[in-house]
């Protein structure tokens, strides 16, 4: 019972509002409010200063947050350990990725080897999947962000060059290669903030002092591909992430496009669990069979 009360308080602080906390906990807003009030009443404390709809932490509430954070980590570690103790004949393994392109061969191989392990895949941008890992919503995260965090183990699993993606009828579609300067007369479609592809695109444009004719921000790779098909503009995208087929054309960047790297992260505290060891063994075997692209920086 206490855990549910603490979770309501914890998520309200982390999410910034009772509404967002209710969504995160999958309960109603009155339930979150009631649990916080029960917690305050049980111990005779005030956790928030209430000013209308605004909630500000009291000193007591601020002191409580790191304690609950450790409790939540322990709870998730217990969950992970119990899922591991089923000899890989059951349980679940959750993966967060910016896209399935680089990790799908490993997932397929892992599925064939351990068919009774339930797999879950969460798609988000580079920062989003790392946040999910740190919040224990996924067990591994595949991200383009390079993170130096002692609590994480990092494996570089791929590197890819950005290409210009256009519709088949676009004048640039028939080119063997183009320079980045062509974007000065094009509408460029950009991913949402937090996307490593967007960061690499903006860095390349700044490095060459290139300002596109127009910019449109569209959240999500699939939405950008659909916008390109409808003639809204073009985009820079890692070549391995361009959907296969005749609906889009990938044009190489001359002399060579910016390179993005793809990393797989997991928590160092879980490095020696059965599920993690099994998944990493499958990953290493899959990577050994994958053709390597020369790294150009």
UniProtKB/TrEMBL annotation:
Domain HTH lysR-type: 1-58
UniProt cross-references to InterPro entries, sorted A to Z: LysR_HTH_N, LysR_subst-bd, WH-like_DNA-bd_sf, WH_DNA-bd_sf
GO molecular function, one term: transcription cis-regulatory region binding
UniProt keyword Ligase, yes or no: no
Pfam families: HTH_1, LysR_substrate
UniProtKB keywords: DNA-binding, Transcription, Transcription regulation
Family per record: Belongs to the LysR transcriptional regulatory family.
Protein name: LysR family transcriptional regulator
């Amino acid at each position: 019972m206490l855990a549910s009360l603490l979770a309501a308080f914890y998520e309200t602080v982390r999410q910034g509002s009772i509404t967002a906390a209710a969504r995160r906990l999958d309960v109603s807003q009155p339930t979150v409010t009631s649990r916080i009030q029960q917690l305050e009443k049980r111990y005779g404390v005030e956790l928030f200063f209430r000013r209308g709809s605004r909630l500000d932490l009291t000193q007591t509430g601020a002191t409580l947050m790191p304690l609950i954070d450790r409790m939540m980590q322990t709870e998730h570690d217990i969950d992970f350990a119990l899922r591991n103790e089923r000899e890989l004949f059951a349980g679940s393994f959750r993966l967060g990725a910016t896209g399935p392109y680089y990790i799908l061969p490993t997932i397929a191989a892992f599925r064939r080897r351990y068919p009774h392990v339930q797999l879950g895949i969460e798609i988000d941008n580079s920062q989003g999947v790392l946040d999910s890992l740190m919040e224990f919503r996924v067990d591994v995260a595949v991200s383009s962000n390079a993170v130096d965090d002692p609590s994480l183990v990092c494996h570089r699993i791929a590197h890819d060059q950005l290409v210009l993606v256009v519709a088949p009828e676009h004048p640039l579609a028939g080119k063997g290669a183009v320079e980045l300067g062509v974007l000065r007369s094009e509408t460029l479609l950009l991913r949402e903030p937090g996307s490593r592809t967007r960061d690499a695109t903006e860095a390349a444009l700044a490095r060459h002092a290139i300002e596109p004719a127009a910019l449109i921000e569209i959240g999500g790779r699939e939405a950008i591909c659909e916008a390109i098909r409808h003639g809204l503009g073009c985009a820079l995208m890692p070549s391995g992430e361009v959907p296969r087929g005749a609906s889009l054309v990938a044009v190489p960047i001359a002399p060579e496009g910016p390179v993005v790297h793809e990393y797989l992260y997991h928590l160092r505290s879980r490095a020696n669990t059965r599920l993690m060891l099994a998944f990493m063994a499958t990953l290493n075997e899959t990577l050994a069979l994958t053709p390597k692209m020369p790294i150009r920086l």
